[in-house]
Amino acid sequence: MSDFLKIQGLEARIDADGTPKEILKGIDLEIPKGEIHAIMGPNGSGKSTLSYVLSGREDYEVTGGSATFKGEDLLALEPEERAALGVFLAFQSPVELPGVNNANFLRTAVNAVRRARDEEELDAVAFLKAVRAETKRLSMSDEMLKRAVNVGFSGGEKKRNEVLQMRLLQPSFAILDETDSGLDIDALRIVADGVNSLRGPDFSALVITHHQRLLDYIVPDRVHVMAKGKIIYSGGPEVAKTLEKQGYTQFLEAAA
Amino acid sequence: MSVETTVQTSPGLEAFVGRAAGHGTALAAMGIPTRRAEAWRYTPLRAFADTVWAEAPALSDAQVQALLADLPLPEAGSRVVFANGRKFDVLDSLSESILVSAAEPVDPIEDRFSAVLNAALAQDGLSVRVAAGTDAGMLTLASLTSGDAVSTHLRHRIVLEEGASLTLYDLNAGEGRYVANPRFDIVVGKGARLTHVKLQQDSQTAGHLAIIAASVDAGGNYDSFTLNHGGELARHEVVSTLNAPHAQVHVNGIQIVDGNRLNDLTSMIHHAAPDCGSRQTVKTVLSENGQGVFQGKILVDRIAQKTDGYQMNQALLLSEKAQINSKPELEIYADDVKCSHGATVGALDDEQLFYLRSRGIPEAEARDILVRAFLLDALDLVTDEILRDLLQRSIRA
Ligand SMILES: Nc1ncnc2c1ncn2[C@@H]1O[C@H](COP(=O)(O)OP(=O)(O)OP(=O)(O)O)[C@@H](O)[C@H]1O
Ligand SMILES: [Mg+2]
Predict the structure, then answer these.
(1) ABC transporter domain location, by residue (chain A) (predicted)?
(2) Counting Cβ atoms within 10 Å, is residue A123 exposed (0-12), middle (13-18) or buried (19+)?
(3) Are A80 and B357 an interchain contact pair (Cβ–Cβ within 8 Å)?
(4) Nearest residue on chain A to B351, judged by CA atoms?
(5) Structural domain span for residue B132
(6) Taking a C-beta distance cutoff of 8 angstroms, is the pair A88, A166 a contact?
(7) Which domains does chain A have, with CATH numbers?
(8) Which residues pair with B235 in a beta bridge?
């Protein structure tokens, strides 16, 4: 079996105003090196929670199970250590950072990760060259580099900024949490291309989406259906088409 | 004065009065304020009152050069250095439009301890007059102190004649456990502009009690900014009066308080004429056991119609033990004024912190980025680019 990303019986809860609320109730999931998997599931089923737990957000308490990445105990690492190891999360709702210049932020992140990976830091010129190449590919205006991170960005611009960060940080495992939501048709193609062009033996991804359309552009190796904190069904790309036509009912009933 | 309950006598006070020779009567009568004195409720002078503070001895050339060595100094402009309360040197030739003379006697600022203390003990200081219509550029005033159980009490007088302008960079630094008690009497003439940028990075064990009295004439602007960064107990106190129409006063600042230190920004902005404006943005970052104090009073006389006042003070608490005391105070007697004020206290945002860390940025660096972001709009109020840059680089949050 693959020892790239391996999640076993993962359980997590959150403290909701004093009462613990179980959200993940035993997730089993493996993503081999070089594969792209998709997760679909009703609102509130725990998809974003899974992405946060994998990237190290502290609000969630892991109460059971394990997650290993490249043979390491992922859950024992700090968020920045996970990033250095190659984990990247494109947030469902990217966070605004007033007062933090986007270009400075990107450069700080890129160099932090390069440092941790024993790579040479990029100087201002080299960074600018790298970032310009990526903004061009993503049809982003350079003006967005001068603004505060995500502040006043439109929904679509925020998502593009996430993909820009992903490309600059060169992860080996990216989680894209509804990166397609709020994108127009052209943007969807551009973002999909931004992911597809990373596809290769050293890049895996977990694509969380509600729309089969994205999966026409980023064709997944596997599709998982998540409900109530569990993966209830896994199959090939055709699962997305079935879901699009018939909804979740039959999957939920089969699992019940 | 009948304030027996709020003052105390102490070895410190007796030593000060002794040093003041014939000039200590007001100080003796006032005493060192206790926490029962309203103005000092959050800023206890107890430790300060128990020490016997001696006159700071003259420093050698080498000592002064050593103190100057690591300080953030702009290349441009003129420079005057005071060391242990004495004029040490005028390092660069002063701009021709700056006329330096011996300090003239000035009236005490009634009831304000820092001013009374200074009035009793001041011997030296800078007196600057910028001639009408001239731009005197940048003047760096470096006040250095070194020693233990010593105090300095500089008294400066800055006068800008009609239409004159000056950028004053007021740098405070030193080594040891001392008290620096500088006082400025500032007169900004008609249409004149004084940009007063202060960096207070006195020793971590020092006391710093600064008081500034600024009066601004028609169309004049006293544009001040202080970065309070040092001192075990440090107060920056501004008492400003807008004397004639269209005068402007800015009392902005940043305080960065760590360890067991206390930094205090206290101000009184007195609108005594119509059509004047005042702006105040103060941001305080507190960590460890740091304590911050903001006391900002805006007084608008009945005559001061069409006053436009703005006050904002915000604190960022980085530890659970840190504490901010803020006391905004608006006293308005005119009926046609626009005065807004606001205050916030908050911690770093967990979501923002996680976002940065998820991008590989280590926690300490992520925190630093967010602290600097919090300070950014205050720092942007430093209009002089060179000084803004210099302050920014001296921030160690
Ligand atoms: N901080 C929190 N406090 C309380 N409940 C929370 C918190 N975070 C998540 N939850 C709850 O956990 C459940 C799972 O949320 P999550 O965001 O993971 O769902 P999701 O599958 O990503 O949904 P969507 O498709 O709408 O994005 C929801 O019921 C949500 O309300
Ligand atoms: Mg979600």
Answers:
(1) 5-253
(2) exposed
(3) yes
(4) A95
(5) 72-348
(6) yes
(7) 5-255 (3.40.50.300)
(8) B209, B264
Domain tally for chain B?
A: 1
DSSP state for residue A150 in the 8-state scheme: T
Tokens (6 digits) for B254: 């940043």
What residues does B85 pair with on adjacent strands? none
Taking the C-alpha atoms of residue B55 and residue B2, their distance in angstroms, rounded to an integer, is 30
Which of A56, A59, A98 comes nearest B358 by C-beta? A56
Q: Is A51 in the pocket of ligand 1 (CB under 6 A)?
A: no
Cβ pair B191, B163 in contact under 8 A: yes
How far apart are the C-alpha atoms of B130 and B112, rounded to whole Å? 28
- Model confidence pLDDT, tens digit, residues B267-326: 999 999 999 999 999 999 999 999 999 999 999 999 999 999 999 999 999 999 999 999
Q: Which residue from B173, B138, B155, B152 is spatially nearest to B64, judged by alpha carbons?
A: B173
* B356 touching A (Cβ < 8 Å): yes
Residue B6 lies in a domain: no
Pocket test for ligand 1, best of A24, A25, A27, A43 (most atoms within 8 A of CB): A43
Rg of the Cα atoms in chain A: 18
Other beta carbons within 10 angstroms of residue A13's beta carbon come to 19
HSE-CB of B58 using CA atoms within 13 angstroms: 7
In 3-state terms, what secondary structure has residue A235?
strand
Identity of residue A32: P
In short, whether A14's Cβ falls inside 6 Å of ligand 1 is yes
Residues in chain B: 397
- A45 Cβ inside 6 Å of ligand 1: yes
Conformational region of residue B125, where left means phi above 0, alpha means psi within -120 to 50, and beta covers everything else: left
Strand partners, B323: B291
Distance CA B20, CA B28 (A): 10
Query: B314 CB contacts (<8 Å, ≥6 apart)?
Result: B282, B283, B284, B343, B344, B345, B346, B374
Cβ contact B359–A82 (<8 Å): no
The reply to whether B121 falls in a domain is yes
Q: Is residue B11 part of a domain?
A: no
Asked if B113 contacts B32 with a C-beta cutoff of 8 angstroms, the reply is: yes
Which of B281, B352, B357 is the mutation pick for testing A, counting most A CBs within 10 A?
A: B357
Contacting residues for A228 by C-beta, under 8 A, at least 6 apart: A25, A45, A46
**pLDDT digit string (tens) for A164-179?**
999 999 999 999 999 9
Q: B263 vs chain A: nearest CA distance in angstroms?
A: 24
pLDDT tens digits along B358-392: 999 999 999 999 999 999 999 999 999 999 999 99
Q: In ligand 1, which atom is closest to the CA atom of A41? A: 21
* ipTM field: 0.97
Residue nearest to atom 17 of ligand 1 (CA): A48
B24: three-class secondary structure by DSSP: coil
Tokens linked to A22: 């179980």
